[in-house]
Structure of Triosephosphate isomerase:
Amino acid sequence: MKKPVFGSGWKMFLTDKEAMNYAQRLKENIPGEQDAELFVLPSFTAVERVTAILAGTDINVGVQNMCWEEKGAFTGEVSVLSLKEMAVKYVEIGHSERRTLFGETDRTVNLKIGKAMEHGLVPIFCMGEELQEKEKNLAKELLSIEIKNALHGIPYADAKKIIYAYEPVWAIGMEDSAQPDYAQEILGFIRQLLAQIYGRSEGTEFTVVYGGSVSLKNVEKLISQPDIDGVFVGRASLSIESYMEMLDIIKDSWSKKVKKQRGDDEN
Ligand code: PEP
């Protein structure tokens, strides 16, 4: 049975010392098995030490980027081979900040997804429209292009392991998230599109999550949407109190949703 996803992207907000302190607090507060798929994405420099601190907990560690090649003249890049040596499980690919500030393209996203899958890492594939595209009603068109380009040559067996993170660019780093019904509409569309690309009927096997200014005030409504399998959170996950409270809301809201869906299926 699916568990709700709760991913926490630390961007470049924490120094290594701060990241280790935070990981230590997570370990103390979330020691046991969890009814949620949890991961945190620290900066590269903190990954090994955060992984060591979180060993034995249900919180996995990932990175925020990687190179599409394994070795060679790629100054400043990080190889998937090094990530494997560090026992990294997840890799974020195509975040809007990487696209706009560091020149990530659909082509490199596609190459990185392929390389990550070849080595058994789980890609968190980020996608989302800009405000102008939303205003022109082009979000679905843009997302179709991003998704088809990113999945070019990726077989179904791999595609169903990816975490698809819909992060509308206009909702990242803001006061509030996208409206839950808008997020639902788009994530439902993404699920259907994935099903269509891979010739499946409903696409329930794909994991589709929402990201962009998720906080304590909106997480419950977001998780209760039928097509939202979890959330990917930036700033609001950087305080342990807010993280803990959010985790409780996610688990609770998820179990209510599952009960409701079962009831609907039986009727
Ligand atoms: C993000 O950039 O992936 C993100 C979700 O950030 P925030 O929650 O801070 O908007």
The longest strand covers residues 122-127. The domain at 5-266 is CATH 3.20.20.70 (TIM Barrel).
